[in-house]
Each structure stands twice: as structure tokens, then as C-alpha cells.
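Q: I have 418 residues here and want to know how they pack in 3D. Can you give me a structure?
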Amino acid sequence: MVMTVKRTGKIRHRLTPCLCNIITFANAITSHYPEQDPMTLTRTTMALCLSPTLLMAEAPKVVTDFAPIHSLTAQVMDGVGEPELLLPQGADPHGFQMRPSQMQSLSDADLLVWVGPAMSPWLERAIEAASLDHSIALLSAPGTVLREGHDHDHDHGSQDAHGHDDHADHDHKDHAKDDRADHDHEHGHDEKDAHADHDHEDKDTHADDKDHDHEKHEDHADHDHDKHEDHDEDGKDHDAHAEHVERVDPHAWLSPKNAQIWLEAIAEELSELDPENAERYHENAHEAQEKIAALDSRIQARLEPIHEKGFVLFHDAFGYFSDHYDLNNLGSIREGDSAPPSAAQLAAISARIEGGEVSCIFSEPAQGDAQVLELAKSAGAGTGVLDPSGSSQDVGPMLYENLMWSTADTIATCLEGK
């Protein structure tokens, strides 16, 4: 028998196993010491088992969307618990069909940590269906550097997100406190201005938008708006949010600055759910931020000698990485995560190749190999494979560091030979 006490949301306190055997224990003692009162023994055993020192608290059940976010969350939870990974390695985070067991895991969670609907729109619907009490969409964390996505003119540039403290959409609590944006533990380099040779700089974007499509409309009772007008306004809000989600480049974890901000955001959320371990969460976040700062310096040194050499990507997933490290990213063969390359896009890339600007062309695991090899052959360019989600890395706390370093090393190795 296990007794549970509801603390916050679905978080449970599990009592020690001695409660399961109180009567058996008391009977055994009585058989050896018949002079003792059985009720006195039972009360004494109950008091010991209910003592705060023997009350064992379960860690929050935390679910993360995919491997890079799992890695960051695992670092914050070190010594307290382990987050669960929702998507298996290699699964497409942009479109995924959950199994019933995965949906149940989401329903049982105390907290979901995910990138946001710009990365996984299907997960937004699953959150609503699971009646999840707490989730944090990291793209909305204040201070997050956002880039505009592929479906608008690319005028690259970065701007800090201005998140809202109150994310009430769908009754999900996507906390993101303003003071997280300027946390004292940020040791990464400031985002550099986009490289002068870049033709496709992103326009400034903001993370003001709420995390969910069906945002409650502001009360207009004082303005004589009828129900039909309110409905129209709700529709406009819905469309505006959907458009913003489509515009945001969701691959924001590939900026070390964002990763540092997100570590603090995760620690804040966990501390609110599990105040008993708040100090540990923040200590872990600070330690992880220090590691990312050291990693950032190593990557800067690795990429500095080749940062002016031009390269082309299979798809536009490494804009944050290129912007942060001032790389000469000349564009992508495929602009969207699922859209095939357009004739205009291929023509633009071909023109750069013919102009001798392209030193390397990078594909992704199981994607773009044939096109990349064909273009590289015509250009005399080198090739490599870049993996934005770390699908070939071992899942765990070290995945983020391994992902970032392997990305830098792959780019540098290819460009050094050209």
C-alpha cells in the first residue's frame, strides 16, 4: 500500500514502506514483548513513519519534447530526478504522431518543457487534450534571441524576446519571469551582428505572443461590442498568433546564449513546483551555464579562423548558430523544414556556387545527400553532415554540449580544407 499526498498539481509525497506493515510489525513486537500495549506500539510506529525526516518526496514528473531540451532539463534536475524524453531520437519534432503510452505519459506529467508551437504544433493540441497543468514554452522565455523564419524576406538580425509573465492560454501555466532574462549567470558571448556578407538577415521578432492559439479575448464590456464583433476579434487574434508562430525560426537552442537563458527558466519553473529542491535546481542551472560559457569560448576559437568562408546548408536550421558565431552562411537548399526547394532558391544557390563563393555544402542525417553531392561536385565544394537535434548523440545531460561541439567541428573541418 502506498499513500500519496497531493502537493502542487500532480506532485506526490510517498510515505515510507513501514506504513504498509504497521500492524504486522506491532504484532511481531507484541509476541516477543507481551507486556507491551499493542496500541502504544502502533501509535509509536505511526509517529516514526509520519516524521518529516522519513517522509520521502517524489521529484516532479517532467516530460521534455526532444533531445536538446531533455539535455538542458536533465542538467537542472541532476541529483533530484530525471526528465522523460517524449520523442525518440530521429523522430521529426515538427510532425509526430504520439502513441497512447506517450499521451498517457504526458497526462501524468507535472511539467512539460518544450520549445513551443513553432517547433511542434501537434504538441500544443496534445497539451490541451492531456489537461496538463504546467508547461513552459522556451521560445517565450524573456531574453530569448529569436530569428524570423523562412516564409518571410530574410533580413537577418536578432532581438531579445519580451515574454509575458502570465501565459493563461488553454489554462496552461507557461511561466517565464522577467528577471530571468538578465540573470547573473550569463557568461556567453553577446549575439554578434550578422556577418556583412549575409544576404538573408532575419528581421527582428518578438516572443510576446502567447503559447497557444485560442487566447481568451480581452473583456470589452465597456465598449458596447456585440457578440459577433467579439467573435471576429477572437478570430483575428487567432490568425495573428498563427502567423507569428509560422514566422519564428524555432531552432533557438543552437544559440548558447538562449541555452543559458533557458536553463534559468527551467530552474525557476521547477523551483515553483518543487520548492524543497529549489536551491539545488538553481545551483545546477548555474553550473550548467558555466559549462556552456566554457564551451562557447572553445567553439569561438575553433571557428574564428574560418568564419569568413562561405557555406550552404541543406535547410535553414542553423541561423542561430551562424549568427552567434558570425559565420558566412550563404543560404539553404530547402528553406522550410518540410518544403521542397523552390526553383528560385535553387537558382540563387547555383549562382553563388558558380561565383565561387561556396566552400562547403552541408546535408543532414538521411536528408539531402543526393542534392548536396550533386551541387558540391559542380562547385568543387566540400561536404559534411550537420544534425540540428543531435539525433546521433547519446541522450542525456551531455547531449547539448556534444551537439554544439560536433556542429562547430564539422563546419570547421570542412571549411579548413577549402
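Q: Anything worth noting?
A: The mean pLDDT is 74. The radius of gyration is 26 Å.
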